[in-house]
């Protein structure tokens, strides 16, 4: 059974014609999104906001289970920024309480909770990085321990009474684990309830999340109704495929771009994606208008080199997390490398143990993950020392200072003693 918590509303779609402002806000909301539920209710909220001048409350909850953000995480943050730029109130919710439970989303086993110290450290780093996308001056930061800690045993029982076990077990990962006799701990069943209760505490009008969060977001909508509040709408964003164009962007898959990566690395990695994948990235990661993107796509279809469009995307993303000058320098560095040139910002590595086997040297210089990978690169003609291709896997490198290159992008100035 799918994650099928009801998103229906008895309220009919508004009959009044939409103003230009509401049409724009709806278009911004729908851009690149997977689902907006229920759309008619969201339109009503937008109309009310326009009539009253009262901004809507847009909630994004994040459990700080890892300290670093990659571009995949920014898909939802970009949507938050777009809604923020329309004048609505963004609430960046740190799930410090729910992190103690651990969200089982997409997992077939329980996940060990983090310590309070780990959560606090991750939360600080996470928000600092998220602020590279969001406007900090227009962002409300909240921690769900504010209201969750106050619930106590009595409050938890009262909250649990507002939802049934049958509905919780409709969640895909719970269903599969239950049918496969894989243990589900009681604390995991509390996670969707606690995330839903956040929406009650914050009186949110709209909650955002990835498609894998749809069930939890709809629980929040249901609980708001149980507490006599106007139910929030739910907007889910697709999961961004990584550099391989297949798997979801993930550090564990090593197909990610971290938003704190050096500008040169970030620029080069964006340029490595496929011409087809580029358009999805434009929709989800660029702040260019849909009209501009459609125009670029038409030019490419008419014969313009797709790399030129990809360079625009790479420069925009690099400038966002660094600055325009860094993006320009990253483009120059990429072009220099493409011509076989040596980049200006070579990492300096000092090693001892000469003469050193070429595989061991490449690994020690952090140019490959292992000595065996280094030997494979030698075999493939992908290793150069001072511009000369290394073809001998048995090479012992003598003492001295040299520029070592692996592939097109990895360089180091190595001093071997």
Automatic annotation (TrEMBL):
<comment type="function">
    <text>Catalyzes the attachment of tyrosine to tRNA(Tyr) in a two-step reaction: tyrosine is first activated by ATP to form Tyr-AMP and then transferred to the acceptor end of tRNA(Tyr).</text>
</comment>
<dbReference type="Pfam" id="PF00579">
    <property type="entry name" value="tRNA-synt_1b"/>
</dbReference>
<dbReference type="InterPro" id="IPR002307">
    <property type="entry name" value="Tyr-tRNA-ligase"/>
</dbReference>
<feature type="short sequence motif" description="'HIGH' region">
    <location>
        <begin position="64"/>
        <end position="73"/>
    </location>
</feature>
<keyword id="KW-0030">Aminoacyl-tRNA synthetase</keyword>
<keyword id="KW-0694">RNA-binding</keyword>
<protein>
    <recommendedName>
        <fullName>Tyrosine--tRNA ligase</fullName>
        <ecNumber>6.1.1.1</ecNumber>
    </recommendedName>
</protein>
<dbReference type="InterPro" id="IPR024088">
    <property type="entry name" value="Tyr-tRNA-ligase_bac-type"/>
</dbReference>
<dbReference type="InterPro" id="IPR036986">
    <property type="entry name" value="S4_RNA-bd_sf"/>
</dbReference>
<keyword id="KW-0547">Nucleotide-binding</keyword>
<comment type="subunit">
    <text>Homodimer.</text>
</comment>
<dbReference type="InterPro" id="IPR014729">
    <property type="entry name" value="Rossmann-like_a/b/a_fold"/>
</dbReference>
<dbReference type="InterPro" id="IPR024108">
    <property type="entry name" value="Tyr-tRNA-ligase_bac_2"/>
</dbReference>
<keyword id="KW-0963">Cytoplasm</keyword>
<dbReference type="Pfam" id="PF13275">
    <property type="entry name" value="S4_2"/>
</dbReference>
<dbReference type="GO" id="GO:0004831">
    <property type="term" value="F:tyrosine-tRNA ligase activity"/>
</dbReference>
<keyword id="KW-0436">Ligase</keyword>
<comment type="similarity">
    <text>Belongs to the class-I aminoacyl-tRNA synthetase family. TyrS type 2 subfamily.</text>
</comment>
<dbReference type="InterPro" id="IPR001412">
    <property type="entry name" value="aa-tRNA-synth_I_CS"/>
</dbReference>
<feature type="short sequence motif" description="'KMSKS' region">
    <location>
        <begin position="248"/>
        <end position="252"/>
    </location>
</feature>
<keyword id="KW-0067">ATP-binding</keyword>
<dbReference type="InterPro" id="IPR002305">
    <property type="entry name" value="aa-tRNA-synth_Ic"/>
</dbReference>
<keyword id="KW-0648">Protein biosynthesis</keyword>
<feature type="binding site">
    <location>
        <position position="251"/>
    </location>
    <ligand>
        <name>ATP</name>
    </ligand>
</feature>
């Amino acid at each position: 059974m799918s994650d099928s918590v009801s998103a229906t509303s008895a309220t009919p779609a508004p009959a009044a014609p939409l103003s230009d402002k509401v049409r724009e806000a709806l278009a911004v909301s729908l851009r690149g999104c997977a689902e907006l539920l229920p759309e008619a209710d969201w339109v009503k909220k937008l109309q009310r906001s326009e009539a009253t001048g009262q901004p809507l409350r847009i909630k994004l909850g994040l459990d700080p289970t890892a300290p670093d953000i990659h571009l995949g995480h920014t898909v939802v943050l970009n949507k938050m920024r777009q809604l923020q730029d329309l004048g609505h109130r963004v609430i960046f919710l740190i799930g410090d309480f729910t992190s103690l439970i651990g969200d089982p989303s997409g997992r077939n086993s329980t996940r060990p909770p983090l310590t309070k110290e780990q959560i606090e450290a991750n939360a600080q780093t996470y928000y600092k990085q998220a602020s590279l996308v969001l406007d900090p001056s227009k962002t409300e930061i909240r921690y769900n321990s504010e209201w969750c800690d106050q619930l106590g045993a009595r409050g938890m029982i009262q909250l649990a009474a507002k939802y049934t076990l049958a509905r919780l077990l409709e969640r895909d990962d719970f269903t599969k684990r239950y049918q496969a006799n894989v243990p589900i701990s009681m604390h995991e069943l509390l996670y969707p309830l606690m995330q839903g209760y956040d929406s009650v505490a914050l009186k949110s009008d709209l909650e955002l999340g990835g498609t894998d969060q749809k069930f939890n977001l709809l629980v929040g909508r249901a609980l708001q109704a149980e507490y006599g509040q106007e139910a929030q709408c739910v907007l889910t964003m697709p999961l961004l495929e990584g550099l391989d164009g297949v798997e979801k962007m993930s550090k564990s898959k090593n197909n990610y771009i971290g938003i704190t990566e050096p500008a040169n690395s970030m620029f080069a990695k964006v340029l490595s994606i496929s011409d087809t994948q580029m358009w999805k990235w434009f929709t989800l990661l660029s702040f260019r208008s849909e009209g501009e993107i459609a125009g670029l796509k038409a030019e490419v279809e008419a014969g313009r080199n797709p790399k030129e469009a990809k360079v625009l995307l790479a420069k925009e993303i690099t400038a966002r997390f660094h600055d325009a000058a860094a993006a320009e320098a990253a483009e120059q560095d990429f072009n220099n490398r493409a011509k076989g040139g040596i980049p200006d910002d070579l990492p300096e590595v000092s090693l001892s143990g000469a003469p050193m086997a070429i595989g061991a040297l490449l690994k020690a210089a952090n140019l490959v993950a292992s000595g065996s990978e280094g030997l494979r690169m030698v075999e493939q003609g992908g290793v150069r020392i001072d511009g000369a291709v290394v073809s001998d896997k048995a090479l012992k490198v003598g003492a001295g200072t040299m520029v070592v290159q692996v592939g097109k992008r990895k360089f180091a100035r190595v001093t071997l003693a």
